[in-house]
Amino acid sequence: MQNKPLLVGITGGIGAGKSTVCKIFEVLRHKVYYADDRARWLMNNANKLKSQIINLFGENAYVDDLLNREFIGEQVFENAVLLKKLNAKIHPAVREDAKNWVKNNVYEKLLFYEAALIFETGSHKKMDITILLTAPEKLRLKRVLARDTYRSERSIKQIMNQQMSDAEKTPLADHLIINDEKNAVIKQTMDIYDQLLNRHK
């Protein structure tokens, strides 16, 4: 009888370095579900979700059948209630999509699920293991400003404020990777990887 895959959640605040760790697992030939990327895809391609977003924001939510990200961003930027309503539409759609992804990859030993809001949304309860990346806030801000040139410092700090702090998330995580440019991320990742392989034996 085939064992089910070990589902490993990878999370951390914006700029913590989740993508770096995911790339290491991809190099090791494992599959990664990028929740934020899939959310964007679903908002553009899942008809039910598109209808829900139009009902919430009006016809301006889409331009040429593509999500009007600038318009949506402006609408939710300082409107916590509207942002909560939007997330209440997106998160169930992503959960269902991820569930199907796991079913379609049932013969894998390890599957990785990358998302910024694993603990905030309660998704960690569906994971077998969680890995949290942490980094000082100033360093994270510097990274995101360099990476996402379209974002302002104010908008990045707002995103950070919507996420749980590292202090709140650390007790909930099974493994911790410190990505502060002092501790070697590859070594920390490989140490955890060895433990994951041993757990799946």
Please explain how this structure is put together:
This protein is an alpha/beta fold. A hairpin with a 2-residue loop joins strand 3 (62-63) and strand 4. The longest helix has 25 residues, at 80-104. The chain is globular. Helix content is 53%, strand content 15%. The strands form two sheets. The chain has a five-stranded parallel sheet, with helices on both faces. A two-stranded antiparallel ribbon has the order 3-4. It has helices spanning 18-27, 35-45, 47-57, 69-76, 80-104, 137-147, 153-162, 166-169, 185-200; strands at 6-12, 31-34, 62-63, 66-67, 110-114, 129-134, 175-178. It is built from nine helices and seven strands; from the N terminus they run E-H-E-H-H-E-E-H-H-E-E-H-H-H-E-H. Helix 2 (35-45) crosses helix 5 (80-104).
Give the strand order, joined by hyphens, for the main sheet: 2-5-1-6-7
The strand count comes to: 7
Please report the number of helical segments. 9
Q: Which of globular, elongated, flat, extended, rod-shaped describes the shape?
A: globular
Mean model confidence by pLDDT: 92
Order of helices and strands: EHEHHEEHHEEHHHEH
* Strand residues, percent: 5-15%
Low-confidence stretches: none
Give the gist of this structure.
The protein has helices at residues 18-27, 35-45, 47-57, 69-76, 80-104, 137-147, 153-162, 166-169, 185-200, and strands at 6-12, 31-34, 62-63, 66-67, 110-114, 129-134, 175-178. The chain is globular, with a radius of gyration of 18 Å. It is of the alpha/beta class.
Features:
single chain, 201 residues, alpha/beta, two-stranded antiparallel sheet, 9 helices, 15% strand, globular
